[in-house]
Amino acid sequence: MITRWAVGVVAALALAGCTSGNPQAGQAIAVGEPGKPAVITTTPADGAVDVSPVEAISVAVANGELEKVALTNPAGKQVKGVLDGATWTASEPLGYGKTYTWSGAVRGDDGERVELTGDFTTATPSSTVHASLNVADDRTYGVAMPIKVTFDPPVTDRAAAERRLTVETSVPTEGSWAWLNGGAAAHWRPKAYWKPNTQVTVTAKVYGVDLGDGAYGDEDVSAEFTIGRSQIVKADTKTHRMVVIRDGKKVHDFPASYGLESDRRRVTRSGTHVVMEKYRVKAMTNPTFGYSDVEVPFAVRIHNNGEFIHGYADSMWAQGKENVSHGCINLSPANAEIYFNSVLTGDPVEVVSDVPLGEFDADYGDYYDWAIPWSEWQKKSALVG
């Protein structure tokens, strides 16, 4: 006797047995869309001209994969780049005024192989601008050291130039760029003196950048340097003393003679000067006052208009009593040597007198930076507003 349950099982088996043998009984049949053709995008676009040589240069493919890529200059040299599956990106800057040609191949999801072609041309500058720094790698500077980027010739698009200038510090440091020297140079200084032992990196990435009127930067420049100990000179023309304060402690108090106050041309001007350079022996010449090649020992320049701190034995009778110099700070040769041996480029020299530094001092290429109030300094940035 066959039960209803048994009959149902047999019927189900019989129904299963009616399926085709290819594919095997019970196997699903995969039904998918055919692969899509590759779509290639080059940046910049094919045929582009006046391309910045530092613009992002790449080729990318949708619905496929790059098999090989080459970007070649007119001399046949291939540009270095990184290939990552569906994207290739140039990893070095290009040259000015050159046509670059794409070549290579792409394999689409549809299995078809497509050739990579196309070209573009980089900008040809009407002229080039050279940027130089006043700081150098692996050097140590004083706490008042300004950073100066000089442009030769001066740029007309200061905002474009300033956007390419960066200062990185090992400790948080508030600072700003300002354009001085008739627009030929951008200076960066902190709001207050640098913190000792700060590590600083300055970079001017101006290559490939239109700095105005079709003039492009000729190369990038950078430097990594250190701010040293704090050493500040307090120079008071009324007390006839020059005090040296190192890391907050007074280490020297020298008798000094400053510029003759009865002649405004000779007075030592008031304000924060910055040490610029030093000489063990310096020949001083000033035709206006009738002397030439007078050698003085241990001369430390604090102004390009002839102001130094130096030794001078002939004025020792006046040092600590009277101001008789032609604008320099006179010390005894022995005291001048002590100061000379301790000084760093960028050390501040804070002078108190009746005649202040004026902004015209920037015309001498001086570090006039600290004589400008911070609020005014910030307004000299090309990016303000």
From TrEMBL:
It holds the Pfam family YkuD. Pathway: Cell wall biogenesis; peptidoglycan biosynthesis. Keywords: Acyltransferase, Cell shape, Cell wall biogenesis/degradation, Peptidoglycan synthesis, Signal, Transferase. InterPro entries: Big_10, LD-transpeptidase, LD_TPept_cat_dom, Transpep_catalytic_dom. Residues 231-352 form the L,D-TPase catalytic domain. The active site is at residues 310, 328. Residues 1-25 form the signal peptide. It comes from the Bacteria. Transmembrane segments: none annotated. This is Ig-like domain-containing protein.
